[in-house]
Amino acid sequence: MFRGYSTAHCSLELPDYHPFPKYKYAGVAQALQGEMEVLEAPAIGWETLALVHERAYLEKLRREGLSRQEAHRVGLPWTRSLLTRALHAAGGTLAATRDALRWGLGMNLAGGTHHAYRDRAEGYCLFNDVAVAVAALRAEGWGGRVLVADLDAHQGNGTAVIFQDNPSVFTLSVHAERNYPLKKEQSDLDVGLPDATGDAEYLAALEPALEQAFASRPELVFFNAGVDVLAGDRFGRLGLSLEGLAERDRRVLERVRRAGVPLVIVMGGGYNRDPGTTVAAHAQTYRLALERLAGSL
After folding, report:
1. Is the dihedral of CA 18, 22, 27, 30 positive or negative?
2. The Histone deacetylase domain covers which part of the protein (predicted)?
3. Reduced to 3 states, what is the DSSP secondary structure of residue 105?
4. Contact 237, 176 (CB under 8 A)
5. CA 180 to chain centre
6. Which of 6, 35, 11, 33 is nearest to 22 (CA)?
7. Smallest Cα–Cα separation from 223: which of 133, 137, 297, 123?
8. CATH superfamily of 3-11+21-296
9. Which tens digits make up the pLDDT trace of 153-193?
């Protein structure tokens, strides 16, 4: 049985009115019980984080935390629980990456914190978990080509900057053009879509983007599978249906299957006005991965 890593065991202190969907981590883990082994995501080590993030930034988080201004930029109030949860989310992505290299598929039921830069936190993101996982592999001597297929509704700005001078990593971001972040960075391939883009238009834009991205001949793929592309999302600005989302995922999974390469899935964003839709959409992505890939691995 394949396994996924969850941060459901990590508390997060937020005001009741805060829009961050902390409910979804436990909800998705519960929805997938019996379909995969769900394990507690381990905390990542500070030395591993230092492979990507500046030591001064990490030391500040350990000793002082974020200032009020910095917390405002992140969009989350500073608490020790925020730091603890971020450590476990990044640890879940690294554990899932090791699973992918061993078994062909690794799943973190958290992660996808693509707005974090080397030296700062932004947009709900303290650590860039995918970048840290890649750096950890490099430190261990793995030198393969990587594709980061970021299909969250927001551009993966931190990821783009961290990898922009790295020819061994191809970064793809398909996102709502007028969405956060206001200032876009440069990925290897950026596809910015108009507000309210629906299923047909989205899939028509996705297909050539995947063609170009997989032409980089990756040996490991990270899929940021944000479901904030759905209609009704608080922050996504796009207009996909659940079936359109499923077709998005099928197309990524089929490319991975045809390429015969390991896949790591990280959760990404999802802030639907209906909490049940957010949970169902994320669970759908992991179920499709098990259905489409597990039998071929």
Report:
1. negative
2. 18-280
3. strand
4. yes
5. 16
6. 11
7. 133
8. Histone deacetylase domain (3.40.800.20)
9. 999 999 999 999 999 999 999 999 999 999 999 999 999 99
Considering only CA atoms, which of 160, 155, 154, 98 is closest in space to residue 131? 160
Closest to 252 measured CA to CA, from 179, 190, 202: 202
* Amino acid (1-letter code) at residue 281: A
- Residue 252, both tokens: 């990524």
For the chain, the average pLDDT equals 97
Q: How far is CA 43 from the centre of its chain?
A: 17
Query: Are 153 and 191 spatial neighbours (Cβ–Cβ below 8 Å)?
Result: no
Beta pairing partners, 6? 40
Is residue 231 scored above 80 in pLDDT?
yes
Residues in CB range of 140: below 8 A, 6 or more apart: none
Q: What is the mean pLDDT of residues 268-278?
A: 97
Place of tokens 């961290």: 162
Strand-pair category, 37-40 with 105-108: unpaired
Is residue 296 scored above 70 in pLDDT? no
Confidence grade of residue 134 (pLDDT, cut at 50, 70, 90): very high
